[in-house]
Amino acid sequence: MRWSLVARAAAPFAFVALLLAMVLGSVAACGTSTGAGNRSPAPDFSGTTLDGQSVSLGGYRGKPLVLAFMATW
């Protein structure tokens, strides 16, 4: 078997291994604190959903939440 065929067959596995190492590295770094430890809850704010309902951050206390702020210019 020629080396180019071996490298071509191993490339997907190398990509998956690199991706897995990146994910595991970022997960391991999530628990570390880089600041002085002055954590405080986010200030409560409210907004409106696309269907007109009002929601506030306080309603999600204790639950995982991902906020995505977007803008168009």
Write a brief caption for the model:
The chain starts with a helix and ends in a 17-residue tail after the last strand. The chain has 73 residues and is mainly α.
Task: Explain this structure.
By secondary structure, this protein is mainly alpha-helical. It has a domain at 1-29. The protein is 38% helix and 8% strand. It is built from 1 helix and 2 strands. The protein has one helix spanning 3-30, and strands spanning 46-48, 54-56. The chain has a two-stranded antiparallel sheet with strand order 1-2. A hairpin with a 5-residue loop joins strand 1 (46-48) and strand 2 (54-56). The protein starts with a helix and ends in a 17-residue tail after the last strand. The model has no long low-confidence stretch (mean pLDDT 76).
